[in-house]
Amino acid sequence: MSSRLAAQPPPGPRGLAFPRRFLAFRRQPLVFLTRLARDYGDVAAARLGPRTIVLVSDPELIREILVVRGREFIKSQALERARLLLGQGLLTSEGELHLRERRMIQPAFHRERIAGYGRVMTELAARFGGGWSAGQVVDMAAEMMRLTLSVVGRTLFGADVAAEAAEISAALTDAMGLMGRVTNPLAPLLDRLPLPATRRFQRARARLDATIYRLIGERRERAGTGEAEGDLLSLLLSARDPEGGGPLDDRQLRDEALTLFLAGHETTANALAWTWYLLARNPEAEARLHGELDTVLDGRPATVEDYGRLPYTVRVLTESMRLYPPAWAVGRQALRPLEVGGYALPARQPILMAPWVVHRDARWFPEPEHFDPDRWLPEREAALPRFAYFPFGGGARKCIGESFAWMEAVLVLATLARSWRPRLLPGPAVQPLPLITLRPLGGIPMRLEPR
Ligand code: HEM
Q1: Mean pLDDT by 10 residues, the chain (451 residues)
Q2: DSSP labels for 133-196?
Q3: What is the Cα gyration radius of the chain?
């Protein structure tokens, strides 16, 4: 690393307008971050109220932070807040605890297990599509959330949570409301006051806890009976750290299970919802997708064996997550003072790397707003810098559910698009709403047309 510029902080807007900038960031983070990178370059700092954030947008520097020098950083303050809900599960833990949890959970995501989950995914997607009727208007975002929630319920917990899906989704939305306080310097104080948002959060957490502890209880009762042994919860119940240590207690089980429950459905649901939206707006790509499904499936339902035979379907999803990355920003903080790209950063410096920004950078993706699945033809993809596309993060904290998510997204899209062609209702473009994940603001109302 060069120390030539070590004394310099990264460039960025200066002056006393930081309260206004803070509001601009809170109101429209995607617009704010895009402009910050455009105006100040690949390492840019902006003081927002009491805090300064550093946005890193160069793929090579992102690789350096996430992979090469991953140990010099911990997760962001946003994730520290997520601990209010998730405790010390895989997403929120650090250091040794994280390594131990990762070792214990990894077997649930081995290739042969994912194939097993794939069978459940196609079955549930087919059943879901069977419940749709021609001409019906649905909110595709809510539909996909319902479907991925039932997939996670069945594959990870061996339970049918379809009946509680709406309740669980509402509890999650309420719980995430409090995460919005992450940029609020008074958050620790507000959290202790009996404000409506705080009370809503506490109620939501209690509802989610009740569901998770019920699932744990049911699984303990069934343990050893041979029923549904392939699911994640039974695996966690019998998990032992290969490097020593006892089983997980109920509290740890709760943290891991809730983490996977949340991380395992909302992201994939958003990826699928945005994909339906993009397909409806891009008839040529939609026709090619249908062509692939008709040829490969030849009139029969998709099965797990078809995964791997649907390259265009994969390209559609890849391109959809380029334009609408469900995890729109990944945060870190430096453990000690260090240099990034030749700029000096103090200890605890919050650093953001935003797939939203990098995925729409014309240096890597010409005509970045254009939906073009063929960007992902192997020869074109090979020309991209490694971290120009990072919807699943990278390094030791890379998404553990990536292959699960791919399997699910491909099989759900193939199963439903074989029989259905959802149409957008007339109206303005749907705007993204960057909460923890990138949701469509107001949902995506669509009319279901059979094919
Ligand atoms: C399209 C779907 C998905 C996307 C875009 C996505 C994205 C991500 C990203 C970006 C991270 C890294 C965050 C960071 O480094 O700060 C992550 C971590 C994680 N994801 Fe996913 N994810 C998806 C699906 C899933 C699924 C299906 C599961 C589980 C079934 C899952 C479970 C997790 C967990 C547990 C972590 C934390 C891993 C660790 O820190 O060791 N995700 N995900």
Answers
A1: 62 81 87 96 90 95 98 85 86 91 89 91 96 97 93 82 72 72 62 77 88 84 66 81 76 90 92 98 98 96 95 98 97 94 94 97 98 98 97 97 97 98 95 90 96 94
A2: -TT-EEEHHHHHHHHHHHHHHHHHHS---GGGHHHHHHHHHHHHHHHGGGG-TTHHHHHHS--H
A3: 22
- What class, spelled out in words, does domain 1-86+329-370 have in CATH? alpha beta
Report how far ligand 1's centroid is from the alpha carbon of 450 (Å).
33
**Three-class HEC string of 329-368:** CEEEEECCCEEECCEEECCCCEEEECHHHHCCCCCCCCCC
Ligand 1 closest atom vs CA 148:
27
Residue 360: how many other CB atoms lie within 10 Å:
18
* Cα(72)–Cα(78) distance, integer angstroms: 18
Listed in sequence order, the residues at least 6 apart from 30 whose beta carbon sits closer than 8 Å to its beta carbon are 328, 356, 432, 434
Strand partners, 433: 439
399 CA to centre of ligand 1 in angstroms: 4
268 lines ligand 1 (CB under 6 A): yes
Q: Is 350 in the pocket of ligand 1 (CB under 6 A)?
A: no
| Ligand 1 centroid to residue 366 C-alpha, Å | 28
Ligand 1 atom 17 nearest Cα: 399
What DSSP assignment string belongs to 129-147?
HHT--TT-EEEHHHHHHHH
Asked if residues 126 and 301 have their Cβ atoms less than 8 Å apart, the reply is: yes
Cα 3 to averaged position of ligand 1 atoms, centre (Å): 34
Q: What is the pLDDT of residue 2?
A: 47
C-alpha to C-alpha distances, 282 to 276, 376, 414, 431, nearest whole angstrom: 10, 16, 17, 17
Query: Could you tell me which residues come within 8 angstroms of residue 164 by beta carbon, excluding any fewer than 6 positions away?
Result: 211
Which residue, chain included where needed, has tokens 């397909």?
A: 279
- Name beta bridge partners: 350: 333
List the one residue out of 268, 267, 274, 271 whose CA is nearest residue 424.
274
Q: What is the pLDDT of residue 399?
A: 97
Cα separation, 218 vs 157, whole angstroms: 10
Quick check: helix, strand or coil at residue 71? Answer: helix
Give the strand pairing for 343-345 and 137-139. unpaired
Q: Which atom belonging to ligand 1 lies closest to the Cα atom of 260?
A: 29
66, 121, 399, 403, best to mutate for ligand 1 pocket (most atoms within 8 Å of CB): 399
Q: Which residue has the tokens 């009946």?
A: 163
Residue count (the chain): 451
